[in-house]
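--- STAGE predict ---
source: upstream dedup step, 1 unique chain passed
mode: sequence only
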Amino acid sequence: MAIDGQARRAPYYNHVMPYLIDGHNVIGQTPGLSLDDPDDEAKLVALVRRFCLRERRKATIIFDGGLPGGLSQLSNSDVTVIFASDRHTIADDLLLNRIRAERNPGGLIVVSSDQKIADAARQRRVKVESARGFAQRLTKAAKSGGSTPEKERGLSKDEVAEWEALFGRKKGDG
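--- STAGE serialize ---
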């Protein structure tokens, strides 16, 4: 289910419609990932990172059962990873709190197949995508590879020359 086609044309800094992802929900629907795998979360995060880079979006993935709970070292500038603490809260509570607190609900996409989460999101007019639909898009994007995003590609010789001319520097200047 394509949400919008504008993300590819938007500048990199303009992250359109960030994702709020029910992590274990998506793992259970993603071919090649298993909830029994101790590295399942890291594997999903890697898929989502590549997806977000290609689509020029940001995402927050929330998982159950991380001790200690909170922000994970798996996070980067595009993908925030949060583990709910087993003792204090569950991922559903964190997802619901974020949905309720969202300042721009129309600018968020919640990825979950949990009916309670989806209903809360729809009540706030947040777009909802099923875990299965998102997992299909993730695996399709991973298989196709797609073109290298501009951020990863680097500058061509002509672009370097243009920047050097703009800043009055030439090769060999220090």
